[in-house]
Amino acid sequence: MTSFYSEDEVKQLGLKHVGKDVLISRKASIYGAGNIEIGDHVRIDDFCILSGKIKLHNYIHIAAAVLLFGGTSGIEMDDYSSISSRTAVYADSDDYSGSAMTNPTVPDECRNVYGGRIYLGKHVIIGTGSTILPDVTIGEGCAVGSMTLVTSSLAPWGIYVGVPCRRMKDRKKDLLKFEEKLK
After folding, report:
1. DSSP assignment of 142-177, as one string?
2. Is the model's pTM score more than 0.90?
3. How many CB atoms lie under 10 A from the CB of residue 91?
4. What is residue 19's three-state secondary structure?
5. By CB distance 3.0 to 4.6 Å, which of 52, 106, 115, 173 could disulfide with 134?
6. What is the mean pLDDT of residues 101-128?
């Protein structure tokens, strides 16, 4: 037995779609599998949580202990993107202002949940320990440094760091030549 589900076991998880060459750790937790689509050449490591509406394209790596909370708004990761360990991505969130109550044990009429789709473009890499909040597009080729808080959309091909996140410099596009080799 390996630490990843077999191809047949992955098909039995009840995912909306699953491609080929998909590795999902037996220690990952998947909630609402019928809302999750996984493309080809995807690896999801130990202690990850995938919940809600999620679409993973091709050649994607999700490292250990990543939390993807797609809710109803959804998270989409385009080709060649990856998320480093201990990162949390929230497509939906409670209102923390005190205007409403918080947490899923409280009736919906007492809560104010807001959200917006999260989109990670092609060749995006998210550094360890980062947090991405609702309604954010991370443009193609962006690199987000470790421990970064992303609260608004990021322009393509930048290197972003900090709390709150800010663009430090442009990212090289040399990696695009390797994409051509994979096609």
Report:
1. -EE-TT-EE-S-B-SSEEEETTTTEEEEEPP-TTHH
2. yes
3. 27
4. coil
5. 115
6. 96
